[in-house]
Amino acid sequence: MVLDREFRFKTHPNIFWKERDDVKNNTIRKIDLNDERFTQLIAWSELGWNDGEIQIIIQCGENKKEYCIKEIRDITIWNDLMIITWNEVKKQ
User: Which among 23, 72, 73, 79 is least buried, having the fewest CB atoms inside 10 angstroms?
Assistant: First the structure.
């Protein structure tokens, strides 16, 4: 099985700026095993990965043109939830 390296999730427009600007550097999702994104992310969490190897694309609501791309740092599964944490953008 070839695993995807990018995973797109929509976020509420009121929260998008927090995620884009790393005020909030994670997202929590209810796991849906019928959604291939979750089964693949579970596989990555079991296999492991190197920095920069997998990314999350955070889309602002239904607006496909407004999004940001972040490198996934951690995938934590707790009960029926998946917590995806990404690396903060280094600010100079």
Answer: 79
Can you read off the two tokens belonging to residue 13? 């427009």
Which three-class secondary structure state does DSSP give residue 29?
strand
Q: pLDDT tens-digit profile of 10-20?
A: 999 999 999 99
More confident residue, 52 or 72: 72
Instruction: For residue 12, give the amino acid letter.
Output: H
CATH number, position 67: 2.30.130.30
Give the whole-angstrom CA distance, residue 92 versus residue 85: 21
In-domain check, residue 92: no
Number of domains in the chain: 1
